[in-house]
Amino acid sequence: MIYKDKSKSVEERVEHLLSLMTTEEKAGQLIQPFGWQTYTNNEGNITLNESFKQQVVNGGVGSLYGALRADPWTGVTLENGLSAREGAEAVNLIQRHAVEHSRLGIPILIGEECSHGHMAIDGTVYPVPLLLGSTWNVDLYRDMCRAVARETRAQGGAVTYSPVLDVVRDPRWGRTEECFGEDPYLIGELAVASVQGLQGERLDQEDAVAATLKHFVGYGSSEGGRNAGPVHMGWRELLEVDLYPFRKAVEAGAQSIMPAYNEIDGIPCTVNTELLEDVLRKEWGFDGLVITDCGAINMLASGHDVAADGLEASVQAIQAGIDMEMSGEMFGQYLVQAISEGKLEMHVLDQAVRRVLALKFKLGLFEQPYVDADRAAEVIGSAEHIQLARQLAAEGVVLLKNEAAALPLSTATAGRIAVIGPNADQAYNQLGDYTSPQPKSKVATVLDGIRSKLAVSKSGHAGEGSGGNSNGEAEVLYAPGCRIKGDSREGFEHAIETARQADTVIMVVGGSSARDFGEGTIDLKTGASNVSDNSWNDMECGEGIDRMTLGLAGVQLELIQEIHKLGKTLVIVYINGRPITEPWVDEHADAILEAWYPGQEGGHAIADILFGDVNPSGKLTISIPKHVGQLPIYYNGKRSRGKRYLEEDLEPRYPFGYGLSYTTFDYSELKLSTESMTADETVTVSVDVTNTGACRGAEVIQMYVSDVVSRVARPAKELKGFAKVNLEPGETQTVTFHIGAEQLQYIGRDLKPVVEPGQFHIHIGSHVNDTQFTELTVEEA
């Protein structure tokens, strides 16, 4: 059998297998049922459900979505879910049945969610992408993707539905936390790193998974920041901004892509032939798999209303370039019928099947559909991965304010510390959306981190930095004060009294993307967990949770204001999934940390920063406005967008690229290797960066390009390079960037890249509004 001969090419194997398949078997390869519905776990005894077994026999199942996914939607909990080892065993059981009981023995493609760690029980939970972007550390993020691939493939997952490459234009959107930020160049660099990390050098290795780029495209530019809303964007801007990260990831070898739910100028992405065929396949040369988002084909007939019914929607989708349907409902019901009624040509079906089979061959599933359960138990949640999660969190936390050097704290002088707020000790609120159930012991909250830090300090084993002091006499007090949402003030009195006893108050507030994991609620008067049948859901961010405002929900601001009246040193730690706009806090807090959702080790990372064992180096990848009415406020808007409103100008409270440190940096000797070039040449620009403070620190050097005069209206500045360097006190390092066509071009009126002769300003600095520039002339070739 040629298709079983690994010495043959992928193309030969695909064509041979395709020639043996019935129409029902071909259609079966394009459907992806929900994986958690295929088996039953009875106290560790895993059995396949009869409906799934029959489906395999009748025509086969091409893929399963979320066979290992656990969360309230799936109903998979810590009690009934699968451990690392059991998950591997379950996938082996699924694959064995598919291989041994289907006519042609085709293995199943197991697809999993892995945006910030494999969404399965026991998987390491990393910070959300908004924090990962804030590290500006591409190499470290690539390492994380390697770790995620290692954990996912160890259990049999072969495809991940990440990275999310959406460019955020309105942070009221609930999925802002899943994105890297508002700049396409930065997202593009992280996109390439993601593909390299997830897919490794060869897809058929035991630590590689196929990356799925999503959401293709414009999903972060929806009308009003409403999830899956219409996108109003012209082709030129679409090519230049939103499509840029996807193109970079395709060039890096991404194997799969997922169209977005939204429409662009009236055309849903799921059936947008110009995007899926003309741009993606013909222009970019993408030859991988295109899979829908869940329920996207249904939306064509019920939502977008561009199809009369499910049959018509299915035909439209596969003809436009869709290869597989997540959920499989429409394709499973209508594809065979469409063929039999002559509404779909066989060659269209065959082309989609080829792409599914090709990916399976590339992944080596025909040679090795099974995994080693012992290895899964060893790899998943390893100490190395946990340390990586802590390092990422530490590098992505952004210091927004530090009045009179309020931070870092010292265990020797901090005295009593009151940790107050709804996010101080709520484990799930540290993790963001798309997270599996977690035992409390696995997640370090901010309260846990501070207590652990001070306990280590008292034992005389603190780490390096100002936080280490064996004579520390600090004491930690705690009160939740209030919830994220709701107007209950019953915890105010206890919180205020707790703060009154303290010398320093650390208030941990913000948002929550936690689904209802059945954790009950919390007693606001004591801070104790109150598990009951009436759990309180504080979710105000995440998929489908879009907001009209960016202020703190509930009575959080009121609690902060009441505690501020005590006159204590006030440190605010924001834990959240989108920017927070609170002018009163910006003006009155002594220090502010933006920690986004920092993951399972976030509490330790935040404590490391609060006590100076880590010098903060995170920089914003999304502009934070002074008022929600300033939106949209992304830094690379057009020069022509205006100057101000009646009430306020258009400057953000905290600009793109902004972030403070416990040390200071000086930029000098900015110079070009030559002051002129042609479009086909390359020049270098260099700058000396010096640590002028008293402690070691990391600085993110950012390069922006400004096209002084262009035939198309352009942004004033665009990020085109960055580097993160570590410097000792007094140390100077020369940082160099290369400038060529890639950094100078834009999409012209003819929708083609162009580098126009003329003047360019090359800006370098610590954030977009703090740069110095030099002038570069581009001459006619």
TrEMBL record:
Pfam families membership: Fn3-like, Glyco_hydro_3, Glyco_hydro_3_C
InterPro entries registered for this protein in UniProt: Cellulose_Degrad_GH3, Fn3-like, GH, Glyco_hydro_3_C, Glyco_hydro_3_C_sf, Glyco_hydro_3_N, Glyco_hydro_3_N_sf, Ig-like_fold
Domain Fibronectin type III-like: 699-768
Coiled-coil region: none
Keyword Nucleotide-binding listed: no
GO molecular function, one term: beta-glucosidase activity
Record Gene3D superfamilies: Glycoside hydrolase family 3 C-terminal domain, Glycoside hydrolase, family 3, N-terminal domain, Immunoglobulins
Keywords for the protein's UniProt record, in alphabetical order: Hydrolase
SUPFAM superfamilies: (Trans)glycosidases, Beta-D-glucan exohydrolase, C-terminal domain
A single GO BP: glucan catabolic process
Entry keyword annotation includes Zinc-finger: no
Family: Belongs to the glycosyl hydrolase 3 family.
Name listed for the protein in its UniProt record: Glycosyl hydrolase family 3
Organism of derivation: Paenibacillus xylanivorans
